[in-house]
Design a protein that fits this description.
By secondary structure, the chain is mostly helical. Helix content is 84%, strand content 0%. The chain is built from four helices and no strands. Helix 1 crosses helix 3. The longest helix is centred in the middle third of the chain and has 24 residues. 27% of the residues are buried.
Length: 104
């Protein structure tokens, strides 16, 4: 169950990271509230996952999910560049996440 908590925590991390863009410096109320809720949910679920997972593994996977998801949504939603080098780097992060899951 800890890996499920960790995965969902990573999804919420993506939510608050992307949400920061939409808050426009915390001047827009609804995106600011969503961002805060997503942040608290992300940290709370990470804490639950840490009950049984090693902190180094859990933190690396959590940030990796957040980094990959945020980069992909930045490309898709925000028109950020999708260069070959950038996509290759995202692939390396994904391979690191998979490796940590397999060998943790």
């Amino acid at each position: 169950m800890s890996w499920v908590y960790l995965f969902i925590a990573g999804l919420f991390e993506i939510g608050w990271a992307i949400g920061l863009k939409y808050t426009e410096g915390f001047t827009r109320l609804v995106p600011t509230i969503w961002t805060a809720i997503a942040f608290v949910a992300s940290i709370g679920l990470l804490g639950l996952a840490l009950k049984t997972l090693p902190v180094g593994t859990a933190y690396a996977v959590w940030t990796g999910i957040g980094a990959v998801g945020t980069a992909i949504l930045g490309i898709y939603l925000l028109g950020e560049p999708a260069t070959a080098a950038r996509l290759a780097c995202i692939g390396l992060i994904v391979s690191g996440i998979v490796g940590l899951k397999l060998f943790a």
